[in-house]
Amino acid sequence: MRQYLFLAIASACSTVAAQTPATNPMPDGSRDMFIGIGAQSVPRYDGSSDNRTLAMPVLQVQWSNGIFVSGTALGWHLSQSPSMEFGPMLALSPRRDQGGVSFSFSGVSEGSSTRMAYTSLRPGEFSEREELDPNRLRNMDVVKRRILAGGFFNYYLSPKLRLTNTLTYGSGKERNGARLHTSLQYMMVDVAPHHTVVLSAGVSVANRAYSETWFGVTEEEAERAGTRGYYRPGAGVQDVRAGVRWNWALSPSWMLTSGATVNRLAGDAKDSPLVERATNYSVSTALAYRF
Known about the structure:
Number of strands: 14
CATH topology: Porin
Distance between the termini: 15 Å
Strand content: over 45%
Number of helices: 3
Structural class: mainly beta
Mean pLDDT: 83
CATH superfamily: monomeric porin ompg
CATH class: Mainly Beta
Strand order of the largest sheet: 1-2-3-4-5-8-9-10-11-12-13-14
Order of helices and strands: EEEEEEEEEEEHHEEHE
């Protein structure tokens, strides 16, 4: 069934747009559910130089009417075409405080520099980077959890090759942050019996409000940190990433899925004084049971 296409664990801590499971044709009134537990090693926040290793609950449910829950995302498949998937969705944006980004449930589906019109504004610059607190989030405002509205559009270039696009809107203090994540995913079936490998590569583009939320520094925050200026990143390409996912079907009901992702910040996000390291990685593994 198509739900086994691109089956993977999407990191719940990342600020990247939520991934959507492949549409799953089912008899009317039925549902398909995965539940499980795993572990993940992920950056404390985008641009952090250190990783955390944490437990990771896994939840994904699809109903025959097209509605699905995948981790902290709720969506609705509306397409009747086998080559396209599209529909509206809601996603929960994580909270970020001095300790980093919060963590929560994950799903089991794999969705894992040009500039736009705006440019950066760097009054005063952050030339004295060594004066920043070792914890660069210590004097930053808390980024609150937000429910984001958006939609997705996926297109199958071939049965094994899928182009995904996910747009979300509503992050930040003014709830006007928007981000588009586009990725290309290729599935290699039966690399060995019961084993599948998925390769993916993607890019994220954000507007100014989104960039300022996660990578900007206000005048008040700069004053608290004792630096000489603030930082206003502009809109544009925020990051590029590549990943690999290995799925092992232990039985018709049990699956072990493991993967790794490398993320490289770009443009104004990379130049943010909050960024300790522009290249981050994450790894995860989980055991999921299909009901």
